[in-house]
């Protein structure tokens, strides 16, 4: 199928984009990488009146340290491939580097953007879960000004976010990870690069003898990433053991509310989630490679 008719604009500044969004609101769509948008246009699942191409705006590019070196700034035009090979990301946000191995296929990673994945909020996507696990902040700009939204408050449901119609996601800010940070990531999919049936992102501090600040985010099962805080709290100041991993996995899986889809029903998804959580937690606390430092 061919895309429906739409107007096209390629502004040269963020202010110009915000002016267009303020005027057209929900009738406008942002074009960055276009890896999801172009498919929905061609299938006529999306019919915007205006396509706003932001690829001329240099201020939206790049990956660098900011905030006196306290956080990593990933611009709205940073492609997945750029993020995946960034030494800054590998050093300061290794969870993202680990997750990037699972993001789609090379051709898509070469065009798709990390902020675009966050803005779309596909429940099977890797980046929203990583953003929550890393306590990232999403920065939105409009004609009214700029505001930061913690990732844990950004995702509301199926393709629903805190972004208003007149706002542009200009960057994501990821706190630089401390030296005793451990990270873990894995997902189940029919083929490598396909959408995740279930995925798990983990961060924690401490040692296997005394864990603190465990963050456990499950994605692909519900309409948005699930921050399993109650299950993660079971690990606070505890020593790692297979029994503890089993308890955390069981509690996290029980907290999920999966729908039935082509990948199975709620019972299947909970079993898959529990198995994957056990696998990721075991790797996180028994593998030397899981250490950030």
UniProtKB/TrEMBL annotation:
Protein name in UniProt: Carbon-monoxide dehydrogenase medium subunit
Entry keyword set: FAD, Flavoprotein, Oxidoreductase
SMART domains: CO_deh_flav_C
Domain of life, source organism: Bacteria
InterPro entries xrefs: CO_DH_flav_C, CO_DH_flav_C_dom_sf, Diverse_Substr_Oxidored, FAD-bd_PCMH, FAD-bd_PCMH-like_sf, FAD-bd_PCMH_sub1, FAD-bd_PCMH_sub2, Mopterin_DH_FAD-bd
Enzyme class: oxidoreductase
EC number: 1.2.7.4
Origin species: Pigmentiphaga litoralis
Signal peptide: none
Domain FAD-binding PCMH-type intervals: 1-179
GO function term, MF aspect, one: anaerobic carbon-monoxide dehydrogenase activity
